[in-house]
Amino acid sequence: MNLFDIQQNEFVSRHIGPNESETNQMLDTIGVPSLEALVDKTVPGNIRMQQPLAIPASMSESDYLRHLKEVSLKNKVFRNYIGQGYYDTITPSVILRNIFENPGWYTQYTPYQAEISQGRLESLLNFQTMVSDLTGLPIANASLLDEATAAAEAMTMFFNALNRDHDHLTRPKFFVDNNVFPQTKDVVLTRATPLDIEVVYGDYKTAQPDDSYFGALLQYPNDLGAVEDYRSFIEKVHAAGAYVAMATDLLALTLLTPPGELGADAALGSAQRFGVPLGFGGPHAAFFAVKDDFKRAIPGRIIGVSIDAQGNRALRMALQTREQHIKREKATSNICTAQALLANMAAMYAVFHGPQGLERIATRTALLANTIAEKLQAKGIIVQHKHFFDTLVVKAPAESIKPKAEQAGINFRYFGADTVGIALDETTTIQDVNDILQLFDAGQVTAKSITAKAAAIPASLARTSPYLLHPVFNTHHSETEMMRYIKMLENKDLSLNTSMISLGSCTMKLNAATEMMPLSWAHWSKIHPFAPKDQTGGYKQITEELSEYLCQITGFDACSLQPNSGAQGEYAGLLVIRAYHESRNEGHRNIMLIPISAHGTNPASAVMAGFKVVVVKALENGYIDVDDLKAKAQAHANDLAGIMITYPSTYGVYEESVKDICSTIHEYGGQVYMDGANMNAQVGLTAPGLIGADVCHLNLHKTFAIPHGGGGPGMGPICVGEHLAAFLPGHVSLNKGTAQAVSAAPYGSASILLISYAYIRLLGTAGVKQASEYAILNANYMKARLEKAYDILYNGKNGTCAHEFIVDLRPFKTSAGIEAEDVAKRLMDYGFHAPTLSFPVAGTIMIEPTESEDKAELDRFCDAMLAIREEIRAVEEGKADKQHNILKNAPHTQFVITADEWSFAYSRQQAAYPLEYVKANKFWPSISRVNNTYGDRNLICTCEPVSAYAEAEA
After folding, report:
1. Which among 65, 389, 447, 777 is least surrounded, fewest beta carbons within 10 Å?
2. What is the pLDDT of residues 700-743, one digit of tens each?
3. Residues in domain Glycine cleavage system P-protein N-terminal (predicted)?
C-alpha cells in the first residue's frame, strides 16, 4: 500500500482498536493462525458472502469533511415560519459545546447502573421536573421519541386502562380533534389500526363523547395556532368515563394555563424548541406527563429518587421502568423509546434561562406574533383567530405570497390556495417581522412600538401558577455557573471517554469525532422537516445514498429511514409484514413466533403491531430448538404471520440452522423478521437477505456508530425484500399513504443519519468488513482469557463465540452467596461499566467489547474479571465473610474510602485500587449501592425541595 492509499485508509486503523502486532498476539491466545481462520471457524460457510460489498472505498477524514461540506450546501437555510411542531431555536453555546459536542455526555449508556450515572440521572430528573411544572401534572417521564409517537403512547395507555380484555372491546373509540397536527394524526392512526381502535375525527366544540370512547386527543395551541379553552369538553369526556390527552407546547405553557389545571389526564409534546436544533426532523425529545393515577402505566422511563447503602440521596430508574423491561409481551410500552441526550439539552436550556428567562422568550415571541396580526388586520387581511400564542393563520393568496417569500429566503406554511400560516419562534427579530410585513405590504414596526402591546392570549387562559421554583432553575444563569454545573454532573458519569463499556447486544463502539462534527453545521441543523423539497437537496443525497448502502449491506432491495429508534424499527418491520399479509387477503395471519433467545424488546413490539406471541424454546447449547419451531409453525400454519429472530443470537452464537429456520417459516406462509441488534457481526461477512430473511431493522446507534447519548438518540431503519417494498412507511408530507407513518418526521431523526453515512464512507467496503472481523476477534480473545476462571454459557459448533459471549455467574450464588449484581457493582471499583446484566439469562453477564477497543483495554477488563474471581474464591474458601465482603459492599465511594472509620476486613487500598492500572485513571462512583426498594416505596420523580437534601445528609 503506497503513501496515498495509506492516507485514504487512515480512518480504518483509527476506528479499529488492535494493531497488527496486537492482532497476532490475540490470535495466539485464541489458538488460531489468522483472522480469516477465526472467521471461518465462527461464521457458518453456507451463509458467507462471496463478493465484496458494493459500497464506495474508504475516504480520509479530511476528504470526507470536504465532501460533506459540498453536499451540505445543497440544503438552503431559509428563515422558517412553518411551525407544525418544529421551530427554530437558539442553542446556548455553553450547552452546545459542553453537552451536544461532548463525548462525556453523548457516549453514555442508558443509566441501568445508577451508581455511575448520577450526573445524567440528575439532569433527567431536572427534565421531569421542568415538564411536570410546566404541564401542571405530577408525574413526568424522562422523554419519548417525538410528539406524534407520544400521542400514540397516550392513546395506548388510555386504551389499556379501560379495555382490560382486548378480545372483547367495550370502549373502542378514540376522539382526535380536527386541529391536531397532521403528522400526529398520521402516527396515531398507524398505532390504532393493529389494536382495533376506532379513531374518530371531529370538532371538539360539537363532539358528544359517550361510553364507547376511552379517550380524546387535543392540541393546545392547535394546528392553526389558535388557543382554545377546552375545559367544558374535558368535563364531557370525563363524564363519559374516558380520559383526555393534550398535545401542547412547553414555551407556550410559560404563559398559558397548564393542561393539568384544565383537567387533562395527560400532556405531551416536543421539547425541541428548548435549544435543540431542527435537524430536518430530529433527534428531538418528546415529553409526557400524567396524573398520579397513571404512574404505573406511563410509557418510557421514569427517573426516581431513592437512597444508597449509606443513606445518601441516590437517583435511579424507578419501578415502573424496570417492570416494563421484564414484562416482554405483556409490556405496555418499550423502554428503549427515549431521547436522553436531547432531554438533557432541553433540561439544561431551562436551567440556564430559568423561569424568568423562559417567560421573557415566550413573551417576546407572542408580542411579535400579535404585532404582525395587528399590522395585517390594519391592512385589511383577515387573521383567522383572535387568540393565539406564536402562530397566525391569515387569508392571503399563496400564489403571490410564496414566490416573494422564497425569494426573500422565508418559508411559510400554506393551507391551500388562500391561507398562509406564520409561526414565530425565539430566533425571530424585529427585522424579521418587518421582512414578513413587507411581503404583505403591511408597513413596518420598531421596538418602541411593540413593547407596550399585549400578547393575544385570553385572560381566562393566562397562566397564574408559578413554575420552576427549585433552586436548580434559579442558580446557574451565568456561563461560568452553567459550565461548572454541567461539568460537575459529567464527572459523576462513566462514559466511553473513561473506559470500555462492554454491554452485550448494545454495542458501545467508538463515535468518531469526524462523524459527529457536521451535526453542528447550520446547513444540516437548521433545516425544517417540512421545508420545500428544492431546499433539501443535501438531505436528499444523503438519505438516498445511505439507503443504498444499507440495502447493499443487508442484501435487500428497499429501505425506510423513518423509524427513530430500534424499537420503532421493530414495530415498523412488523407493520410491513402485517400489511403484506393483508394485501394477499391473509389478514388473519396473526401468530408471531419469537425464540426465547431473541432480542428482549421483540415481544412487546409484536403485541403493539397486533400479533400474538408464541415462544420458541432454546436448546441447552443456546441454539433455537428447531424441532419445537417446526412443530409450532405447523400447528399455527393457517395463522402464521412470521418469526422474529436475532442473528447471531442474543446468546452470542451463529446458528448453522438459520437457513433451515427461514425455510420452515416460508413453507408455512410466514415472513422472517431479523432483528438487527447484532448486525455488527454480519456486515461484510453475511447478510439477512442472504440468510433468507424478508425484513430487518438496523440499530444505527449500535452497528453504525450513532452514540447512545445516555439512552437515546437511536435510529432503526428497516430494509426489506422487493415483495415488501410497497409497504414501507409513508408520511403525509411526502404525499404517500397515511396509514403507515411510524414517526413524526418523514426521515425520523434525520440529522443523525449523517453519522452512519460518515461511518460507511470513512471505513469503505473493506473497513466495514474488518469492523465485523475485529468484533469477533476481540470477543473471542476475551473469552479465551476468561474461560478458565469462569463458565462460558454458550459456544458455537467450533468452540468460538460471535461478537459477544455470556459469562455464567450463577454457580457463585451457591458457592459464595455472590450474585451477578455484586460482580457488576465491583467492576465499578476497577473503573468499568458492567456488561449487560442478567440478560438474556438471569444471573449472567453478557460481554461485547466491540472492534474499537485495543488489546490493552481488553486486558485491563480481563484482569479486573480475573481479580474479581479471586475475590469470590476468598469467600468460597472462608477467607472473607459471606455477607460482608468486598463484592457485597461495592462500589466503594471516595467518601467511604476516606472516612475516619474503616470497619471492613479488607484494606482501603484493596477496595479502591485493587490493581495497579486503577491508580492511573481512577473513576469514583459518586454514591454507594442504590436501595431500589426504598425508592419504589417512596416514588419521587421530580426535584425535591431543598430541605430534602439536608434531611438526607443528616
Report:
1. 447
2. 999 999 999 999 999 999 999 999 999 999 998 886 544 589 99
3. 14-440, 455-731
How would residue 327 be classed by pLDDT, with cut points 50, 70 and 90? low
- Cβ pair 772, 35 in contact under 8 A: no
639 CB contacts (<8 Å, ≥6 apart)?
588, 589, 590, 591
Across the chain, which distance is largest between two alpha carbons, in Å? Answer: 91
Note whether 602 and 675 are within 8 A (CB): yes
Q: Which of 755, 711, 800 is nearest to 501 (CA)?
A: 711
Residues 6+ apart with CB under 8 A from 694: 577, 642, 671, 672, 673, 720, 721, 723, 724
Number of other CB atoms surrounding residue 605 within 10 Å: 31
Local structure of 845: helix, strand or coil: strand
Q: CA 633 to CA 725: how far, in whole Å?
A: 25
CB-count exposure of residue 225 (10 Å: 0-12, 13-18, 19+):
buried
pLDDT tens, position by position, 641-663: 999 999 998 889 999 999 999 99
pLDDT digits (tens, 9 = 90+) for 376-421: 999 999 999 999 999 999 999 999 999 999 999 999 999 989 999 9
What domains can be seen in the chain, in order of their start residue? 103-350 (3.40.640.10), 556-748 (3.40.640.10), 775-887+892-927 (3.90.1150.10)
526 and 427 Cβ atoms separated by less than 8 Å = no
Could you tell me the sign of the dihedral formed by the alpha carbons of 568, 569, 570, 573, in that order? Answer: positive
| Three-state SS annotation for 719-743 | EECHHHHHHCCCCHHHCCCCCCCCC
Read off the pLDDT band of 788 (50, 70, 90).
very high
Angle (nearest 5°) at CA 38 between 35 and 44: 130
DSSP 8-state code for residue 99: I
Mean pLDDT of all residues in the chain?
Answer: 94
Burial class (CB in 10 A: 0-12, 13-18, 19+), 909: exposed
308: left (phi over 0), alpha (psi -120 to 50) or beta: beta
Cell reading at 761:
464512507
CA 897, 903, 908, 914 torsion: positive or negative? negative
Is the predicted pLDDT of residue 612 greater than 70, yes or no? yes
Instruction: Give me the mean pLDDT over the 28-44 stretch.
Output: 98
Residue 333 predicted with pLDDT over 60 = no
- Helices vs. strands in the chain: H and E counts, helices first: 35, 26
CB 381 within 8 A of CB 395: yes
User: What whole-number distance in Å separates Cα of residue 605 and Cα of residue 835?
Assistant: 24
Contacts of 181 (CB under 8 A, 6+ apart): 84, 85, 147, 148, 219, 223, 247
DSSP 8-state code for residue 193: G
Q: How many angstroms separate the Cα of 757 from the Cα of each of 509, 750, 752, 760, 763?
A: 16, 11, 9, 5, 10
Q: At what angle do helices 147-162 and 182-192 cross, to 10 degrees?
A: 40
By three-state DSSP, how is residue 519 classified? Answer: helix
Q: What is the pTM of this model?
A: 0.96
